[in-house]
Records
---
Amino acid sequence: MLFNSLDFAIFFPIFFVVYWLVAKKLTLRNIFLLGSSYLFYGWWDWRFLFLIAFSSVVDFSIGKKIHATTNEAVRKGFLITSLVVNLGLLAYFKYTNFFIDSFISSFRLFGAVIDDYTLNIILPVGISFYTFQTLSYTLDIYRKKIEPTKDALSFFTFVAFFPQLVAGPIERASHLLPQFHKTYIFKYDAVKSGLLLIAFGLFKKMVIADRLAIVVNQVYNNPTDHGGQDLIIATVFFAFQIYCDFSGYSDIAIGLSRALGFDLMKNFDTPYFARSITDFWRRWHISLSTWFRDYVYIPLGGSRKSEYRVYLNLFIVFVVSGLWHGAAITFVIWGFIHGCFIVAEKAATNYGLIVKRNTVFNGVFFTTFTFIIVCFAWIFFRANSYSDSIFIVSNLFNITPDFKDFYQLGLVSHEFNLALITIVLLLLFDALHRRYNAIKLLNRAPFFLRSFVYVSVIYTIVVFGIYGNDSVSEFIYFQF
């Protein structure tokens, strides 16, 4: 079920009313919330409900067993069992065909001919997200940071919580799980704030991201038909498409949760105003970057090891992050690029090669440079194949003399101009929000001004939103 679908537009109001009718009865509320979350997830394919239920049973049981024993070997054995089960399922559904293709390709390098063989494996929506969420539960119990819950219903609901189930934010059990042990009362301000976030999220998704996707899809699906200027336009458009698509989803998830009384972590913080790749990853997909920091980088030794080991640890994290996003060499290259710049920035800092002067020129220069690097890496993230990505990179500056074909990339002139306008408005909003917290400013504004903004956002979604286009309506991160 998509947040921007008619199905969800019918589902959520009914759910919302019933939820608040039973909200004071904790067990009944959690039963209703779990059943609704399973309905939401099963809307795609009910068979995958068994998978998420199985994962919940495994980690709920193992969490209790880890806590119940003081024998370190036994505790580690249970943890390894959780890792093998969860990562094994993830690897099977996400990487089996990648390993088969890599195996076949390696033999072809030596002249051996092996027939292509691909399994018909359907990737369960959101498996990467809820797998990491349940793993953090058992890992934190093993580290003695939290104690296991005795309430199976709360744990199952924590794993399947529908607002953030399929694309995050990836919540820690220490933050979200205790919230299922509490009852909430209806608060008008919280519900209003949540609905406003939902509206902004839908605006980002339907008005900006889905419109940009039309251009991006046309160019990236047929890169050899386009010159350098088209490739540059499509790459920049993709940078804003994926930002608005994913941050829009996060806004909706946080808004839905807030309207129900729950609090989710912030997942984006104006990432395209970052002044370095390191700064970018403090602002982009925060729940994932902090997950890799806590459960991959620190266990590898973090910053406690020698200088070169620290560089290696950072590099490993970003290559693994690339693999987490998808089973393709292009995602590995994307992670490789980010890892190289992260390591270079760390080394430059260690050797005093970066002079931090807070001037307007430095701010504009480093922000622009960071954005260019991020866009370059997005080429590999978005390209349909390795060969396509190499073609795009090789032809970025193969500029053709006819600039009028901007209006022949899937959007007519006024639609293309609207896409540019919304990007500018987004950047202005992010700049305002970065400096003054735009949401708080809006809440303090006079009633007529707030009402004008609310009505304008809703009107823009209704009139200028993209509807009925299956190729652009699904959220990008559903595939991960």
Note: The two ends are 16 Å apart (CA to CA).
---
Amino acid sequence: MPNRAIGFFAVLFLSLVGLSSSVFIVGQTQQAIVLQFGELRRVIQDPGLKFKIPFIQEVNVYEKRVLDFDLPATDITLGDQKRVRVDTYTRYRISDPVQFFKSVKPANEFGTARRLEALVGSTVRNVLGKADLRELLSENRSKIMHQINSEVKALTKGLGLDIIDLRIVRTELPPENRPAVFNRMNADLQRYAKQNRANGDEKAQEIRSTAEKERTTLLAEASRDAQILRGEGDAKAIATITEAMGKDPEFYGFYKSMEVYDTIIGEDTTLILSSDSDLFKYFSHPERALRNSH
């Protein structure tokens, strides 16, 4: 083959290699940064066919989509000294590719997983270390998760990452600790129940004592009022009797005798008395009764 032909093919080959090295494609879900000798030259957010200086510039391409990171199950000691095994997952996005490149080494999925494992793991330990198992299993769980999210977001902002969501997938007791924890929880519940019963008995006794005191007071006041009314009635009765005796003593004697008759004489009553007895003087002298009735 002539030397001219060899040179032509060599130039053509080098041209193709150079062209292929100067062209790259950024996808719809991608973003890229262009580096020249390790220094940032430009950031590419728009998809399409792009160019760079071959052999001098290099391109780092990152995802725009939301990515997932699963933290391996970790044993954590809670605030009440109970140990639990916590499994979490994190959803994040590379929001600032330049900051991501500068802060995460290596600036790839492996480096991101290593940084998130350290940050998420330490934050989950710190927050859950101040909570007890009862809070973690109650409605306070959402507050705890909000605190974890907020702290992790603050820590990862300087890495060029945006934390979309962080959740505890599963919380369970380590198998070797379950019997002891269940026994302790049972003892705590029994103590709470005993304390609540004691408080209830004390409150019931207080209510009964108050009710008995009020009952005694009401009875005493009622008895006092009855005595007062009875005294007032007796006083009025005596005044009425005294007034009646002063106006017509004979009629008063007749009225009292009629009351005695009504009290001692019934359908089966038999009395054997002298005809001149004072009890029957109005029967012996009916003119007195007729006179008194007028």
Note: The longest helix spans residues 178-247.
---
Amino acid sequence: MGKIVKMGLIWLIWATNFWQLGMSIWLNLPSSGTKCVSEEIQTNVVVLADYYVISDDQTSLEATISVKVTSPYGNNLHSTGNVTHGQFAFTTHEAGNYLACFGVDGHNPKAGDVSVNLDWRTGVAAKDWESVARKEKIEGVELELRKLEGAVEAIHENLLYLKNREAEMRTVSEKTNTRVAMFSIMSLAVCITVSGMQLLYLKRYFQKKKLI
């Protein structure tokens, strides 16, 4: 029993550390056009992201970029231009894919691809645990257990969200299959009706010409 509990704690610690890592992405932006990243997020989730242009030569001028973040329904959550670094934060009010698009501004001294690092964190990973520890005066093991509790709750909520999405997709699939079957039956009925009318027309035509 002790070994099982120990393995469970190790798994929870690993899950928490994985959850807290968030999503760090290295983007190579072309000199023209944009490059976007997206993540499917449920409602009432805190999102925090930092981005900055990575320069190989610190003595040269850095290219500036424009950033635009939109919600699943197209609402503008963050928009800026002519920057080399920045941050955006929001709490989701819609479930779905949140899109962050990056593009190089007209001023690009390198005249080539521009590298951007994006640190995208959601849920537990975006929570300011230092402020929580100071406010509630907790530290050490108690703080780690609080992080574990938050990670478990986040995982449970995401599992419920995925389960609901699966049920919705199954309902949509069943409705689609029913509509396709109805359309197939209607198409078959129309084909049979048209064939019968053609046969009747040909029979009358042959009778009129006294061919039968």
Note: Strands lie at 23-29, 34-41, 46-54, 65-70, 76-83, 85-91, 96-104, 114-122.
---
Amino acid sequence: MLLDTQTNLVLDQKINQFFDPESKEIYKESIQKTVDYIIDFLDNDTFYSGESSDNLRSKIDLIKANPQIKLSIDEALQEIKELYLEHTISFHHPTYVAHLNCPVLIPAIVGDIMATSVNTAIETWDQSTSATLIEQEMIRWICSEIGLPDVSDGVFTSGGTQSNFMALLMARDHYAFHHFGLNLKENGWSDVVSKFRFFCSEKAHFSIKKNAALLGMGYNAVIPVAVDSQMKMQSEALVQAIEKEKQLGNIPVAIVATAGTTDFGSFDPLDTISKIAKEYDIWFHVDGAYGGSYVLTETHQSQLKGIEKADSVTIDFHKTMFQPVCSSAFLVKDTNFFKYVSYYADYLNPLEHRDVECPNLIEKSIQTTRRFDALKLWFTLKMTGAKTIGSFLEKVHYLALDLYHSIKDDIYFEMIHKPELSTLVFRYKAPGIDRDSIHDTINLYIKNTLFKSGQASIASTKFDGKIYLKFTLLNPKSTIDNLLEIINMIKETGRNYTTHN
């Protein structure tokens, strides 16, 4: 026998930990006990316990796996409660307004639990069957909402950074093939590619530069374009930047427009930029990771005009469609563009077995193994509905406007923009102090003090080299009173600092 009696005994005791017909009662009991602990987590009074990083590190013995000790479900849940649930960040809490982390919908959680338990791998038909059809339908739905043509297509991704990576890769390879006859996927690098240039707003997401570097083209392949007072890309400056690069002997290949910048929620003039891209015969990508979901609203149709002309679009459902991470998509106006990322492996998706009726989604993805993330969006659309999601987005937009109007004339605050989405950037200004360096110190103190105390989580950013605070509003259950409570905390903390320093 390959296994001795003692080993077999241990295996028999643990074998029912697998998800299968023999463990149905164990699965049910374990999930129910876990749900009870999660419900207790919802009773946390603050967005964060305020536990210091040193104290959290002192719990390292709970983090480490001890091969000599096997815990029961009750013991493991108690440990994770002490280590994680009591101290993790509560994105649903009304005093959490820091980043693009949305509260999640219960239908989405149902889909996530189901996808995780069944553990469908979505890359090939013989691993996913109808799950493939569900993902394709979710892609068809969002392409239709955006207004992309019937030949459009897409794939779920890990997030905006991955989607933007695919956009730059396709833009580069498409231009190389159609203008120089180069097959970069097949033959690799060519010297002419070093002259390729991407253009984006100076307020665009950092992933544009990061991805250019990962593609081997370097940060300098990305040309930042000036913005106006509303933080939108200036179309005149874009044309000037393109012409300047051409005069330098470089080759414009793509424009990345942003629909909802991370800091300001600004929309670049998509329609105008689409015409510029067409005039220069270059790729037009829209990074709508934040603002793309606002196609479901009535309030932002004008800002999104032109997105339907994009060659590719990034959209993050886990930012503004109330989905658990990860739930994002990369969309293209023509499904044939996926040839730039496709590969056919004999053991997985051989070309000779390609079947449009039973497609292998790996042909569209830079990932191989991939979760069935579309299922949670399916549950959301079926149970909540797109119109309701749109109303949630309109709610947080109007909430940002209400906050802006509530504090814009307050002598303790300096505003730099009127919200176009659901972010507000401002800073606390102590009366009688003129030095920006002091205001920088005070604003960072406010942010850090409120976080460490567990009172509120707000973000910070820089504008013109100065430190500002930022509210990112994604919770439609928040009220203006919730936000004004945080504003009062900011004032009190700022006054305490100036009094004692």
Note: Residues 411 and 431 are 7 Å apart (CA to CA).
